[in-house]
UniProtKB/TrEMBL annotation:
Pfam families associated with the record: DoxX (PF07681)
Location within or outside the cell: Membrane
Any single Gene Ontology cellular-component annotation: membrane
Organism expressing this protein natively: Candidatus Harrisonbacteria bacterium CG10_big_fil_rev_8_21_14_0_10_44_23
Protein name: DoxX family protein
Keywords per UniProt: Membrane, Transmembrane, Transmembrane helix
Recorded topology in the membrane: Multi-pass membrane protein
Membrane-spanning residues: 6-24, 44-62, 68-85, 106-125
Lineage: Bacteria, Candidatus Harrisoniibacteriota
Classification via InterPro entries: DoxX
Length: 130
């Protein structure tokens, strides 16, 4: 079972690590998207959120600073879900569906992160257990 938990951590944390890297490699597009959604200080917001999800993802993968890593992910998901993916404000049906799907995906990930908070640390097969 420990190996399944490790695989799950790699998949879950890897998702956020990949997203965070995208905040830097696709910065221009993400800044424009955030601006179109009414976010202020978009450049700083994109870079800060990129750092948050990179640190969160790495912490989850390695099993270090677990509570901090998960809270970074939780904070990111709450803010991005309700500030960026406000599908209820969109009139175009296809764009509304895209944003609703992104919102619901984030809410599901938020639920997983919240559940991970109750798993006692150090986690098995992690740098935090040595």
């Amino acid at each position: 079972m420990e190996i399944l938990f490790l695989i799950g951590r790699i998949l879950f944390g890897g998702f956020f690590l990949w997203m965070g890297i995208g905040h830097f490699t696709k910065k221009v597009g993400l800044i424009a998207y955030a601006q179109s959604r009414g976010v202020s200080s978009t450049s700083a917001a994109v870079l800060l959120s990129g750092v948050m999800v990179i640190l969160g993802g790495v912490g989850i993968i390695l099993g270090v600073f677990i509570d901090i890593a998960l809270w970074l992910i939780i904070i990111f998901l709450v803010f991005v879900s309700f500030m960026i993916h406000k599908f209820w404000e969109i009139n175009d049906p296809s764009q509304r569906m895209v944003e609703a799907n992104a919102f619901m995906k984030n809410i599901a990930l938020l639920g997983a992160a919240l559940m991970m908070l109750i798993i006692s640390s150090p986690w098995a097969i992690s740098l935090g257990s040595y």
